Amino acid sequence: MPRQPRYAKRRMAEAHDAVLAGKSAHKALALALGISPTTLKLWLEQQPDFASAVADARAELARQRAEAAPARAGRKSKYAPGMDETARLHAATGKTDEDIAHELDVSLTTLRNWRQSHPGLRQAIQEGRDCWAVTTVEQSLIKRAQGYEYEETTTETGDKGERIVTMQRHMPPDTRAAQFVLTNRAPERWTNKQEVEVSGLDALAERLARAAQRVTE
Q1: How many CB atoms lie within 10 A of CB 202?
Q2: Contact 87/121 with Cβ under 8 angstroms?
Q3: The pTM is what?
Q4: DSSP alpha helices (H): ranges in 106-200?
Q5: pLDDT score recorded for residue 197
Q6: Could you give the angle at which helices 48-68 and 10-20 cross, rounded to 10 degrees?
Q7: What are phi and psi of 49, to 5 degrees?
Q8: Element (H, E) at 148
Q9: pLDDT at 123
Q10: How many other CB atoms sit within 10 Å of the CB of residue 92?
Q11: Does position 199 have pLDDT exceeding 50, yes or no?
Q12: Which residues pair with 152 in a beta bridge?
């Protein structure tokens, strides 16, 4: 068996250069230094400075390879500009973020991320929500202007104990609500400046309610 060379401090620099040249593996490094893998193992175990130099060189090589490697392409986003209008329509019907995410076939987290990274989608959802809010209030106002029927449930206490009573109630037309609806829906015929001659508040309420009914049909 050939005699192995003795360790010398210059071997630290030789090992460092060899590792950076791509001879990082144990056998490849031993071959580059002209020694056996067994001798290299002994040097790494018995010579702390040598072991540290090899470790530092391997770490530096790993950093160089990481910097040189091209960035991994991320997963392609499913987002498309056409989704903005879809989201707007769903938001305009009062649907929540969770509902909209389901309609777009994405998770709620994905939708929220898209709203941050795609201003068009964020604006579309907000516009849809604004439309829904206005429509909801408008419908309530029209209902109040026309008057409506509703059920009222109360609890009555008598000789035989408590009983629940449900009664049909009538909410009469509201003249202010009717006037507001008409001046906004049909301003050419109904304005705040227009003087309407009627005989009494009841006649005005009845007339406005009928007009509101025609506008909403």
Answers
A1: 12
A2: yes
A3: 0.42
A4: 108-117, 119-146, 175-185
A5: 44
A6: 20
A7: -65, -40
A8: strand 148-158
A9: 92
A10: 19
A11: no
A12: 167
* Cα-only R_g, the chain: 41
- Retrieve residue 34's tokens: 């002209």
Residue 147 Ramachandran class (φ > 0 left, ψ -120 to 50 alpha, else beta): left
Whole-angstrom distance, CA of residue 156 vs CA of residue 153: 10
User: For residue 104, what are its two tokens?
Assistant: 């777009």
The pLDDT of residue 126 is 92
Please tell me the number of Cα atoms within 13 Å of 152 on its side-chain side.
9
CA 126 to chain centre: 13
Distance CA 1, CA 31 (A): 16
Instruction: Round to the nearest angstrom and report the end-to-end CA distance of the chain.
Output: 107
Q: At 90, list the tokens.
A: 């769903």
Measured between alpha carbons, how far is residue 136 from residues 77, 123, 129, 140, 169 in Å? Answer: 35, 20, 11, 6, 23
The shares of helix, strand and coil residues in the chain, as percent rounded to the nearest 5, are: 60, 10, 30
Contact 4, 36 (CB under 8 A): yes
> At residue 152, does pLDDT exceed 60?
yes
